[in-house]
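quick one: nicotinamide-adenine-dinucleotide bound model?
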Amino acid sequence: RKLGVALVGLGKYSEGQLGPALKETKNCRLAGIVTGTPDKVDKWKREYDIPDKNVYNYETFDQMADNPDIDIVYIVLPDAMHADYTIRAAQAGKHVICEKPMALNSADCQRMIDACNKAGKKLSIGYRLHFEPHNLEMMRLGQRTVFGRVNQIIAENGQDQSENESPWRLGKGTLNGKPMPGGGPLHDVGVYAIQGAIYTKGEVPVSVTAKYHPITDKEKFSEVEQGVDFQMQFADGSVANCRTSFNEKYNILRAEAANGWFELQPAYAYDGLKGKTSQGDMDIENVNQQARQMDAFADCILNNKPTSVPGEMGLRDVQLIEAIERAAKTGTKVSTQEVRKVLDST
Ligand code: NAD
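yep, here:
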């Protein structure tokens, strides 16, 4: 049987990527929606053949507990809302996929993990690139030291974030009439650079240093940083030089190893990824990443296997974001001793 997924939050990512991907999945299907915008309901019902009884809003959300059509709740809300809705979904007895970044702080991540454990439900993070063949090749080449030891990684992800698209990304959102915390490039897109460096090296860094970019647009960046350069240092002396921004575009993951190099550019996109090594082009096809990601999670549930992108990995990355922020604020090297050592090995 195909497991039923309910998408929570019908914004850009649900509409443009997750909904369409759920037309291609084999182990799961779109069974329900949760939205606070009644105008969106008809279009989604028609497009995906969703019955009225599987349409919820944020007040009726918890009633999903009584709906056997829904096995997995997928949280696709602004980051500040991830923790509460993940916990409510677990309490309703559902498995959960929560979008990245897992939450605004590591304490919330831990609460989410605890709630899912207590409910006996699985929790995974929407890390689609762990199911994407170019990125899987970076993991293989790096972790198996195919070109020798990886000495330096360059991981940069930046995008020009417009002010009016999603105000919450610039720290200007509201929730129940009050300012909503969160946002900023490090949380939103820098997390891909953190991820890329770790899964290429196959290690969690031992320390980080960081520096905020100067703010050139004071109005746009009144609430969040404009960008950050950060370095992650690994135990063997190798480093990852990373960069993220909401004002400049970059999209690269590159590894320099003892006997060659390998890279993706673009590395973190939904489609059109391209890879090269010091021996020539990678000949790898682009696939529907989100369909693979959701099918893999459904398979973990159906066959009671652990997910390769668990809540603990989301917590690890939020702990690293906190360490990078501390390093940028203090101008010091920050140890990551406390960070969870969670790895997705090839
Ligand atoms: P979006 O702003 O387009 O959508 C957010 C949705 O949440 C909207 O449907 C909105 O109506 C709803 N919402 C409910 N309460 C809200 C409130 N108080 N303020 C604002 N919106 C509210 O954002 P998006 O781009 O779809 O991102 C949603 C989540 O998905 C984020 O966590 C983001 O990081 C993640 N995301 C992940 C990827 C990926 O590749 N994995 C890509 C894009 C977004």
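The radius of gyration is 20 Å.
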